[in-house]
Amino acid sequence: MRGAVRIEAVSKAFGGVPAVREVTLSVDPGEFVTLLGPSGCGKTTLLRLLAGFEEPDAGRLLISGQDMAGMPSYERPVNTVFQHYALFPHLSVAGNVAFGLRRGACPPTEIPGRVAKALEMVRLTGLGERRIDQLSGGQKQRVALARAMVLEPDVLLLDEPMAALDLKLRKEMQVEVKNLQERLKTTFVFVTHDQDEALVMSDRIAVMNEGRIEQVATPEELYERPRTRFVADFLAVKNLLEAEVVEVAGGLASLRTKGGLVVRATDDGGFSPGASALVGIRPERIAIADAGPDAAAALPGVIDDEIYLGDTTDWRIRLGGETVTVSEGAATAQARKRGDAVRLVFPPDAILRLAESPA
Amino acid sequence: MKTRRQGLLLLLPCAIALLLLFALPQVLMFEASLGRRSAYGGIVHDWGLLNYARALEPLYLKILARSLWLAFATTALSLLVGYPVAYWIAVRAPVRFRSALLVLVILPFWTSFLVRMYAWIFVLRSEGLLNLSLEAVGLPRLGLLYNDFAVMLGQLYGELPFMILPLYASLEKLDRSLLEAAADLGARPRETLWRVTVPLTLPGIVAGSVLVFIPSLGAFLAPDLLGGARTVYVGNLIQSQFAIARDMPFGAALSFLLSLLVLLLLFLFRKPMRAAQVGR
Description:
Chain A is α+β, with helices and mostly antiparallel strands and about 350 residues long. Chain A contains nine helices and 20 strands. In chain A, the strands form four sheets. A six-stranded mixed β-sheet of chain A has the order 6-7-8-3-9-10, sandwiched between helices. A five-stranded antiparallel β-sheet of chain A has the order 13-12-11-14-20. In chain A, strands 15-19-16-17-18 form a five-stranded antiparallel β-sheet.
């Protein structure tokens, strides 16, 4: 049970404004779970409830099988990596890492050794005497990690720890933190608003919106099969179309969108004839078929607009009354320009049925 | 070159003010301290060090030591009382009340110090507010006025705002997430106070202590009015040289020595003071 987290119907409001609404979530020991969502979705509040900086208005929190109700943060078996690191400016790097150790839990003679080991773990060996204001952002990040991990918490809480780093460093730290977590087998609860970060690092992702969890899934599942409009939108499913189910036959559902586009989707059992449906299509799953065997089944459209993104280009393509976004790799995108006529293929399994909100 | 000249030009008003209001009076006072008292209380300008020799006699050194003790005690007491108050206003009190609470701290400045000392006499004297209240509930009267207790109380009351304001300034700047981090790392509230809050507010502690200690060293109103002038401090001594004994040269010498003493103390404590600045 050590390292397990159970969140049972937890709610928290600030001055009458709900921040977390009846959230239930279980995290297994050694699991890396990410709370993903836009700012204000309640993810940080949920983390602060686990850390003990806030008390829930309702519900139960269990960490390592122990009820956290009324337990102050200094007694909880968790440690936190703060968004802006919250390193003590009056202490050296080693002083920061040793802060939690200087409390009798660890014999004083062992402190230097454990500090050195923790610094080695985050690849800061030899920087123990540095002042905090002499460190770069990435180094501060590592000190914060070492300071929390040196206490060997049951659960490590990370509140957008990469937010202040530049893109390249962030990518490096993501891999490093993930590797560290796999090696130490500590439970990580990680908060971020960056979907790529969540996909790279997590065993499971809980997508939050307006204080609720919309979907909990593995990165692959979440990416391939978002279940709600919000999750799809947040995970860059750029085409969200409202449609009517024309017929369901042979494992395929025929849909007519509001703009008059007719496509066929793989039926997951959720389509019923005559009903309305919300579907999402990833822009990279729509193929531009100029020629070849697919061309016959393809639908004709015209390029309206171009959004250049470096390694890919997003085309805004008008098909009758509907406009869709299609991503294309840089290699083939060069051949096209605004106003060109193209033919699009919508693979049935690329069309995702979405719910408006979680059930 | 041009920017340098501009820089000097900008410095000029400040330099002039400092020269006219600080350096020049010091020089004049020093010159006076070398002179001799004339028959009618004027200054005879024959230079000598007699006044300084007199000021260093055991009698006066004892008064100086007593003043140092008073200043030290005032500083320690105001820190002891002021820190919790400043902490409460800056960290605990609801944000919307903060300005109002600060105004309350500053409010006494709107009344002259002299008047406020008289107000304390009305509170403390044998027929005063406190003693009448004690009597009303059947308790015996206490000798609250004209003793060291009254002097200390008056000093504390007078100097407390000078301690609270710099403390508030540094506590208000304190990053709250550091307090959370300390708790997260297992530190109980008391431990967080000693290991995080106090070290990080050291600049405020040093600034407040200097602001309280220096005027307390020359205090003469509270000892005079609340102490009943029974105990002489260096402030009273200097004041009486100018106002009663009419020995301006000796008063000037005492003042000059006091200034030197303050400078010496600031010099001796320059290291912890600078360390406190770096800690910010």
